[in-house]
């Protein structure tokens, strides 16, 4: 039996005046009570999902939990492949493990690539098989325009989605697993000696927002899926291809403000209809993993560097900082939730794990046939720099940042290690740290200065990336 969301027939409303011009842009707003499409812009055009991919990883994790195949305290062991994923990550070494619950929280807050791969390997037996499970599940949910190739959303030209499909997945997470959906409103959680904050800046900023997920790669732009509840009204909205995290968030806030008053206060009856084509059951596979810690391979970014999951753009540097911490044993996480989400849906018993559904398109909008950009284009190659470390004065001009840390000493140690790895590149630069506060805690940015222009800083950063050292350029 197939489950479909019966959508009200209606025309999509005109987009707000400030709609984005970027070719990667796409958006949709769905009335979650009725399934009606309130706004649509290139909603059926192919886009790269970036870390929105982790929504499906979490869906399959919730499914495994609900069926008893895994438990919240089950151990997720990190293979060499998982431990070697590039940042953002939580930094568990190969052979180490965390609980399923900690892995869930690390995906929702830090968007951890390593934990996402480890979960995929645990549930699917291999990341490749898990990706096939993800795509099969997408089809069973009516996501016809989506193909998954990995568990975390790292760049892959064969992995794509649409804004409409991401809205379907957002609604599925809310309706099918209300017992786990509250995780998406987690503001932060304790992991070892660090507290990891959620990248979703709309939590607590826009009334009624209770999740869901952010994402970024160079090819995708800045992505966001939001769930909003205000009284009896309920929306799921998607913005893809934002030019920055701030502009993406502002666009989402604008869409919510515009369309929430148009949302229905009451559901249009049962949104779910049964089908006789359930998705076949896939058992959790066991994986042969190392029984001891193995160092992260040198061909990947420095193991202790945990950078911004959604990649920082220059204008957001102060807003989207992340903390660098060496991998530490992870106790059971302490969850800090926002006010408990008011899920105005039917009870969990009413929904099964394999509930496909479809959101009806506006009558006047045909699917667009827009080309997808090449994934993850990098800036032109080049050079960078180093000298003595100082915190007292901040050099003017352009700099490159390689890490942030709650310890000035650790930030300096990272600078020293970076300089030793690429001495020919950093021979003429100045290494320094810059303190900043976040959540009442002082952190330190680790930077190299001495670049005359943005181009020279980008070129320097590119040279570091060739050595697998993550960085970005910033004006002082």
From TrEMBL:
Residues 392-476 form the SPOR domain. Residues 1-19 form the signal peptide. Coiled coil: none annotated. The keyword DNA-binding does not apply. One of its GO terms (molecular function) is serine-type D-Ala-D-Ala carboxypeptidase activity. Keywords: Carboxypeptidase, Cell shape, Cell wall biogenesis/degradation, Hydrolase, Peptidoglycan synthesis, Protease, Signal. It comes from the Bacteria. The keyword Thylakoid does not apply. Its EC number is 3.4.16.4. Pfam families: Peptidase_S11 (PF00768), SPOR (PF05036). InterPro entries: Beta-lactam/transpept-like, Peptidase_S11, Peptidase_S11_N, SPOR-like_dom, SPOR-like_sf. Belongs to the peptidase S11 family. This is D-alanyl-D-alanine carboxypeptidase. It comes from Aminobacter niigataensis. The lineage of its organism: Bacteria, Pseudomonadati, Pseudomonadota, Alphaproteobacteria, Hyphomicrobiales.
């Amino acid at each position: 039996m197939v489950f479909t969301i019966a959508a009200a027939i209606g025309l999509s409303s005109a987009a707000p005046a400030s709609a984005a011009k970027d070719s990667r842009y796409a958006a949709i707003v769905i009335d979650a009570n009725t399934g009606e499409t309130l706004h649509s812009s290139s909603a059926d055009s192919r886009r790269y999902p970036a870390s929105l991919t982790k929504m499906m990883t979490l869906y399959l994790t919730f499914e495994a939990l609900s069926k008893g195949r895994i438990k919240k305290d089950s151990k997720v062991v990190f293979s060499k492949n998982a431990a070697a994923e590039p940042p953002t990550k939580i930094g568990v070494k190969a052979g180490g493990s965390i609980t399923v619950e900690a892995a869930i929280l690390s995906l929702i807050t830090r968007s951890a690539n390593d934990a996402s791969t480890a979960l995929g390997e645990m549930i699917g037996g291999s990341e490749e098989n898990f990706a096939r499970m993800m795509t099969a599940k997408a089809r069973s949910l009516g996501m016809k325009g989506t193909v998954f190739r990995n568990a975390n959303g790292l760049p892959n030209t064969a992995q794509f989605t649409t804004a409409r499909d991401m809205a379907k997945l957002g609604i599925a997470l809310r309706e099918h697993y209300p017992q786990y959906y509250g995780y998406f409103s987690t503001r932060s959680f304790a992991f070892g000696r660090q507290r990891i904050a959620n990248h979703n800046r709309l939590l607590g900023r826009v009334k009624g927002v209770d999740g869901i997920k952010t994402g970024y790669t160079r090819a995708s732009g800045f992505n966001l899926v939001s769930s909003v509840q205000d009284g009896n009204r309920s929306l799921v909205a998607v913005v893809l291809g934002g030019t920055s995290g701030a502009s993406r968030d502002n666009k989402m806030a604008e869409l919510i403000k515009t369309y929430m008053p148009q949302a229905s206060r009451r559901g249009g009856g049962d949104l779910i209809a049964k089908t006789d084509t359930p998705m076949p059951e896939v058992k959790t596979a066991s994986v042969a993993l190392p029984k001891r810690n193995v160092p992260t391979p040198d061909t990947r970014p420095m193991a202790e560097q945990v950078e911004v999951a959604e990649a920082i753009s220059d204008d957001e540097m102060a807003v989207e900082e992340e903390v660098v911490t060496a991998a530490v044993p992870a106790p059971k996480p302490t969850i800090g939730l926002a006010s408990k989400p008011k899920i105005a849906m039917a009870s969990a018993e009413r929904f099964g794990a394999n509930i496909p559904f479809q959101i009806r398109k506006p009558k006047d909008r045909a699917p667009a046939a827009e080309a997808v950009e090449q994934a993850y284009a990098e800036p032109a190659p080049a050079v960078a720099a180093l000298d003595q470390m100082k915190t007292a004065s901040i050099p003017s001009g352009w700099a490159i940042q390689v890490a942030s840390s709650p310890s000035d000493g650790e930030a300096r140690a990272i600078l020293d290690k970076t300089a030793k790895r690429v001495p020919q590149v950093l021979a003429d630069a100045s290494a320094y740290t810059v303190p900043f506060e976040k959540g009442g805690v002082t952190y330190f940015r680790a930077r190299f200065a001495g670049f005359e222009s943005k181009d020279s800083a980008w070129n320097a950063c590119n040279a570091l990336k060739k050595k697998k050292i993550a960085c970005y350029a910033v004006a002082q």
